Amino acid sequence: MSVTSFNQIRVSSAALRHNYRLLQQKVGSVVSILAMVKADAYGHGMLESAQVFASVGCKNFGVAEIDEAVRLRSSGIRGNILVFLGFRPEEAELFFEYGITPLVYDLQSGAALSREAVKRGQEIIVHLKVDCGMGRLGILPEEVEAFVADLLQFPGIVIGGILSHFPKADEPESQHSFEQFSRFEGAAAKVGKPFSLVKHIANSGAVLYFPHTCCDMVRAGISLYGYYPDGPGGREREQGEKLQPAMSFITRVLQVKTVPAGTGISYGYTYTTDRETRLAVLAVGYEDGLSRSLSNRGEVLIRGKRARIRGRICMNLCIVDISDIEGVQAGDEVVILGHQGNDCISGDEIAGWMNSISYEVLCLFGNNNERTSG
């Protein structure tokens, strides 16, 4: 007998394939897509999602740390795997052992890779990270020429790519991305010959709203999982075929009860019933990624209708008002995220209740619950 949780994340492989193909159509056959599968593929499952993307032609994958890259390679993922956060010097050997590509933004990393390359009698291809306006990792554009000269003093280092990142690509009307792209192009020109660089700066927002920035490769993240980086506005603006959200989150009703008016609900009595009220107790709480900020704000779907969360969300439980929904019973399926009947609760809607973004919602749900794919 298999034992499963009341709470289940369901990931649609068909939606992942659809999104990859749609993005490939947008960028054209000459431009490669790098699938960002860091953060456990935004909660969708890193290994499973990478395998789906590989099945439809993806040959480039992005992760945050080297341990993610090793797990990908060990699971059979081929092609290029880029590590975006850097690494500790003692981890340099892993890039050679597993055929992984490092990003370099300091000379210490270059030195560590060079030592390992000399020891093995090999070369290693690195991508140079440039900060063209994000204010995070990367050397500044005006430092590129000197940095490259110093980096190439280390034997065994080959510069194979240059990248940056847009902070405002999810703002279609902003001019900032045009300015930043100009700085990026200038920085790439400073690397000079004899390198044939793979240039990449476009994230999901740039793919959708600034296609002239796609260069040789784009790094698709949230769009691969069915969401627009600027939220519901992006979905509404899309004139053609739309991205398809891949994740749904299902839980169950544990108990149904009727309480009189004046009953305090959950910790602190932040909600008190103003009439006789039918309540359903659900097997989901903040341990499962249902943020406590959704207390008295969030909604769920039961029997195709919306039920409001009442009182504070607990660690493993929450309570919803089902007074206007007929026939609810213990064991009924409850949709936290996704479709039921003719209604749908999206990650964007939940993010709005949380004053957050869909990225956080997907990571919270996907990384805290059992997942199934199909």
Describe the structure using short key phrases.
single chain, 374 residues, alpha/beta, TIM Barrel, Lyase, Ornithine Decarboxylase, Chain A, domain 1, 2 domains, 8-stranded parallel β-sheet, 6-stranded antiparallel beta barrel
Distance between the termini: 21 Å
The tally of strands reads 19
Structural class: alpha/beta
CATH homologous superfamily annotation of the largest domain: Alanine racemase
Counting structural domains, the number is 2
β content, as a range?
15-25%
Q: Class of the largest domain, according to the CATH hierarchy?
A: Alpha Beta
Reconstruct the topology from this structure.
Blueprint: E1 8-11, H1 13-27, E2 32-36, H2 38-42, H3 46-55, E3 60-63, H4 66-74, E4 80-83, H5 92-98, E5 101-104, H6 107-120, E6 124-129, H7 144-151, E7 157-163, H8 176-191, E8 198-200, H9 204-209, E9 217-220, H10 232-237, E10 247-259, E11 264-265, E12 271-272, E13 277-282, E14 299-302, E15 305-310, E16 318-321, E17 333-340, E18 343-345, H11 347-354, H12 358-366, E19 370-373
Parallel strand pairs: 1-19, 2-3, 2-9, 3-4, 4-5, 5-6, 6-7, 7-8
Antiparallel strand pairs: 1-10, 10-13, 10-17, 11-12, 13-16, 14-15, 14-17, 15-16, 17-18
